[in-house]
């Protein structure tokens, strides 16, 4: 307990989190997966186990790589939301097609241009939506 109080707890950025860990050890109360930031880019997960003999076991795991991965995932999701908003709200019709010409995605303006529901356009051949007069120029 003294080692945790003097060496580990002072590293934890959040005083309340450090207090929860010390309290669990002191009271010999089980605690699972308490995430603690110990530096700007370092994280650890602490768990307290209390076996039948009353001793308190402290388990510490470095979870820095996982936290960094979660942060990258959140950033990527935010970028995807931003792209989606730009795509959906663009004033011009955008159609995303595969090499065969199948519509994979279309924005609101594109659906409005064809007077079709967006969901009904996705998965259809783009050539189905070209005026018959213009189809002779297709390969």
Percent of residues in beta strands? 15-25%
Low-confidence parts = none
Structural class: alpha+beta
Q: Kindly state the number of beta strands.
A: 5
Strand order of the largest sheet: 1-2-3
What Rg do the Cα atoms give? 28 Å
Helical run tally:
5
- Please trace the helix and strand order, writing H or E for each element: HHEEEHEEHH
Overall pLDDT level = 90
| Distance between the first and last residues' Cα | 78 Å
Shape: rod-shaped
Helix content: 40-55%
Largest β sheet strand count, sense and barrel closure: 3 strands, antiparallel
Summarize, please.
The chain contains 5 helices and 5 strands; from the N terminus they run ααβββαββαα.
Explain the overall architecture.
40% of the residues lie in helices and 22% in strands. The strands form 2 sheets. It has a 3-stranded antiparallel sheet, sandwiched between helices. A two-stranded antiparallel ribbon has the order 4-5. The chain has 5 helices and 5 strands; from the N terminus they run H-H-E-E-E-H-E-E-H-H. With 139 residues, it is of the alpha+beta class. The relative contact order is 0.08.
């Amino acid at each position: 307990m003294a080692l945790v109080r003097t060496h580990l707890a002072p590293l934890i950025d959040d005083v309340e989190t450090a207090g929860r860990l010390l309290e669990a050890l002191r009271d010999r109360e089980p605690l699972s997966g308490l995430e603690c930031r110990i530096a700007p880019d370092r994280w650890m997960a602490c768990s307290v186990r209390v076996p039948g003999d009353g001793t308190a076991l402290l388990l510490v795991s470095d979870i820095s790589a996982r936290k960094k991965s979660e942060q990258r995932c959140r950033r990527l999701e935010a970028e995807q939301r931003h792209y989606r908003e730009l795509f959906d709200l663009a004033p011009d019709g955008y159609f995303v097609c595969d090499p065969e010409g199948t519509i994979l995605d279309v924005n609101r303006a594109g659906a409005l241009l064809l007077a079709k529901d967006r969901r009904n356009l996705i998965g259809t051949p783009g050539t189905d939506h070209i005026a018959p007069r213009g189809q002779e120029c297709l390969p």
